[in-house]
Amino acid sequence: MATMEERLDELMKKRAEARLGGGQARIDKHHAKGRLTARERIELLLDEGSFEEFDMFKKHRCQNFGMEKTQILSDGVVTGYGTVDGRTVYLYSQDFTSHGGSLSETHAEKICKVMDMAAKNGHPLIGMNDSGGARIQEGIEALKGYSEIFLKNVMYSGVVPQISAIFGPCAGGAVYSPALTDFTVMVKNNSYMFLTGPKVVKTVTHEDVTPEQLGGASVHGTKSGVIHYGADSEVDAINYIKSILEHMPSNNVEHAPIVPTNDPVDRATPVLSQIIPDNPNQAYDIKEVITNTVDDGRFVETQPEYAPNIVVGFARYGGKAVGIVANQPKFLAGVLDSNASCKAARFIRTCDCFNIPIVTFVDVPGFLPGTAQEYMGVIRHGAKLMYAYAEATVPKVTIITRKNYGGAYCVMSSKHLRGDINYAWPTAEIAVMGEKGASEILFARGAKASEDPAKYTAEKEEEYKEAFLNPYRAAERGYIDDIIDPAKTRFKIIKSLEMLKNKRDTNPMKKHGNIPL
Ligand code: HXC
Questions:
Q1: Distance from the CA of 460 to the center of ligand 1, in angstroms?
Q2: 64 pLDDT band (50/70/90 cuts)?
Q3: Residue 400 — φ and ψ, nearest 5°?
Q4: Which H or E run contains 473?
Q5: 173 classed as catalytic
Q6: What backbone phi and psi angles, to 5 degrees, belong to 405?
Q7: Residue 241 · residue 215 · CB < 8 Å
Q8: What are phi and psi of 469, to 5 degrees?
Q9: Is 241 helix (H, G, I), strand (E, B) or coil?
Q10: Whose CA is nearest to atom 29 of ligand 1?
Q11: Pick the CATH number of 36-246 from 3.60.20.10, 3.40.50.1950, 3.30.420.150, 3.90.226.10
């Protein structure tokens, strides 16, 4: 009979074997590609010494193509739980050195186990993906494994935060798990996501593309909108995940943690009184408004390079986490188009399902006109944004800094879509349209008939501006709650959020709504 010491020794040896994954040679090859191992990534993510691993000794059951002879303990994925800034998270981290991180039935079982535990115990799930996709030697069992992961991604959507990192290849149907999660982060020039790789693309469409051109972080961060952040390195990606977690509750029945700040609640922001240019067609940077008002100037932007005409991200006011949505006059004059609508709608729904109040800064000339947008379905996409704001029951505080015209007025968290507190700066222009558009429709005939059409038009436009391009019409009707000094914006937002902290609002009973996807 073996002694306890011998048994412990055997356990240590087995653990050491599992920790080595596919072996030192493959680890060296992996490092040479500028990538960290599955376990190194976990070490970076979690608080030191907090990791508890599950299923280290799990093996695959495949008997095809000599696979029974190539058993690697852990079967290509490290799973378990630990803490990030003292808060529990569950995780999985695919090990590319073990069968290329490919997903077998048992590999999927390990992932499903932590997903179930995360949902049952109410903690976020972080998935670190680095995989050649379905374990080819297994075939259909691997597909079953993927499908079960997808199902759990959907079932636990809106229950616990789910965050995906892509640290290597992520190809084929495997991309759908990250796509179903709340946030996806990639590493620039060292990770890729696509349904079919460059070789298949070449065969089918005759396009010559590199993996980076087809599905690198630059593509998904700017063109497709699939990811929320393109990191410069794996360390940067993991730090970004931590900063997102910091603003999220652990589950849908909690609130995000309050982070005390020395930034005074009533800190004035006089610089904002000067920020709106005298010329209404001149741009300014809405991010200056955001960073000047939030706690310690800290703003964690998501999808910074996609549809930059709208800015979304997390920050804190008086210690409380909020989601911020803001039109960006610096890009396309802050106009709403299809991509901006989808980006903001998704973000608003993320905030709403995790009890994160939404602060909206509005400076929007309307929806972008033209065939390109109409053919793209700007009606359908704009409707998503409308839908997201209307159904959201979290506290909604809105600050109108300048333009707020037409359909975009209705959409951008207006009082009529259950905005709770809607303030305007004195520079606000709340109207159906700007003076030029109105002039085309209302004054063209009069101008034609007049002796001096230019003078007539200028006078009429001035008259229109005087009458409509201000916040007072909306204030007279109670469509905004007050007109505020820009210097007091921070204070007013914090007071509003405090006042709204016990807000209870519901939607009619239904199986689920039918958002125009
Ligand atoms: C089994 C795999 C594998 C896979 C890689 N490996 N992918 N084993 N199943 N899917 C193994 C390799 O045999 C090799 O084993 C090790 O992982 C490293 O692979 P390399 O090819 O040497 O690495 P590299 O040159 O870096 O290329 C990485 C790669 C390539 C681009 C990911 O391996 C590749 O193209 N793999 C196949 C990708 C693919 O088509 N997957 C199936 C997609 S379909 P050794 O023992 O030599 O170290 C799919 C369906 C999902 O995923 C559907 C969900 C609904």
A1: 68
A2: confident
A3: -95, 115
A4: helix 472-476
A5: yes
A6: -110, 145
A7: no
A8: -85, 65
A9: helix
A10: 132
A11: 3.90.226.10
Q: Is 192 touching ligand 1 by the criterion CB < 6 Å?
A: no
Nearest CA to ligand 1 atom 8: 99
Kindly indicate the confidence band of residue 443, based on its pLDDT and cuts at 50, 70 and 90.
confident
Residue 454: band (very low, low, confident or very high) from pLDDT cuts 50, 70, 90: confident
Q: Does residue 224 register a pLDDT over 90? A: yes
CA of 136 to the centre of ligand 1 (A): 8
Binding site membership of 102 for ligand 1 (Cβ less than 6 Å): yes
Q: What is the predicted pLDDT for the residue at 465? A: 85
**For residues 414 and 440, which has the higher predicted lDDT (pLDDT)?**
414
Determine the atom of ligand 1 nearest the C-alpha atom of 211: 31
141 within 8 A of 159, measured Cβ to Cβ: no
Span from the CA of 133 to the centroid of ligand 1 (angstroms): 6
Buried residues in 321-330 as b, exposed as e (16+ CB within 10 A): bbbbbbbbbb
Tokens in use for 168? 């290597």
Residue 114 identity (one-letter amino acid): V
The CATH class of the 270-432+470-499 domain is alpha beta
pLDDT of residue 317: 98
Measured in Å, residue 45 CA sits from the centre of ligand 1 at: 26
Token pair for residue 251? 């589950």
With a 6 Å cutoff on the Cβ, whether 174 touches ligand 1 is: yes
Q: How many CA atoms lie within 13 A of 34 on its CB side?
A: 10
pLDDT over 90 (residue 477) = yes
What average pLDDT is seen over the chain?
A: 95
> Is 316 close to ligand 1, i.e. is its CB under 6 Å away?
no
Give percent of the chain with pLDDT exceeding 90. 86
For the chain, domain boundaries: 36-246, 270-432+470-499, 435-468
Structure-derived torsion over alpha carbons of residues 124, 128, 133, 134, reported in degrees to the nearest 10: -50
95 C-beta neighbours (distance < 10 Å), count:
28
For residues 489-517, give the mean pLDDT: 97
Nearest partner of 428 among 485, 345, 493, judged by Cα: 485
Say what percent of the chain tops pLDDT 70: 100
* Active-site residue, 100 included: no
Instruction: Give the phi and the psi of residue 49 in degrees, each rounded to 5.
Output: 75, 5
CB atoms near residue 175 (< 10 Å): 22
Per-residue pLDDT at 473 = 94
Indicate whether this model's pTM tops 0.90: yes
H helix runs in 333-400, sequence order: 338-353, 371-376, 378-391
pLDDT-based confidence at residue 415 (cuts at 50, 70, 90): very high
